[in-house]
Each structure stands twice: as structure tokens, then as C-alpha cells.
Amino acid sequence: MPMPSLHEPTRPSWRCAACGDEWPCAPRREELLLESGGSGVALGLRMAQYFAAAVTDHPDVPPAVLYLRFFGWLRHAQR
Fold first, then answer.
1. 9 by DSSP, 3-state: which?
2. Is 39 helix (H, G, I), strand (E, B) or coil?
């Protein structure tokens, strides 16, 4: 079982509790990749849950902006 991360989102801002960057921050992205065990599907589903919550918390932000934030890094990271 993975260790709990310090780099968790603070809601409703969706800023990292540890470093203050937009979440998912770079350290958390690395952790998420490791935690997924190489399963792009599992990681994508997990990010979809976070994305849905962020869309709910930020009705004033275009969903496309949040989509890029939560999913835009996945394809590049899994190469």
C-alpha cells in the first residue's frame, strides 16, 4: 500500500497542500504514475474522479481548461 502523499489537493481551490502549486503538482504526478503501476486506464479513471470534483468546485472555469490540467499530462508522462 502506498504511503499517503503530502501533495494532496486542497478543496475547493485545487491547490496542493504541500507546495501550493495547481494540483496535480509535479511531485504528485510522479507519485500518481508510480501508484498506478503502469496502468493508464486506472490512472485515467482516478483522474476522471478528480476532474469531476474540480468541475463541480469551479463552475466558472471552462471545463476544457480543467481537462488540460487533469488529463493533459497523462499521455506525455506515460511514454
1. strand
2. coil
CA–CA gap between residue 71 and residue 56 (Å, rounded): 16
Give the chain's domain count: 1
Whole-structure pTM value: 0.88
Query: Domain range for residue 41?
Result: 9-77
Instruction: For strands 9-10 and 15-16, give the pairing.
Output: antiparallel
**Per the domain annotation, does 2 fall within a domain?**
no
Whether residue 3 is contained in a domain is answered as no
User: How many whole angstroms separate alpha carbon 77 and alpha carbon 43?
Assistant: 11
* Residue 37: predicted pLDDT: 86
**DSSP code for 62:** -
User: Does 1 fall in a domain?
Assistant: no
What are 10-66's pLDDT values in tens digits?
A: 999 999 999 999 999 999 999 999 998 888 889 999 999 999 999 999 999 999 999
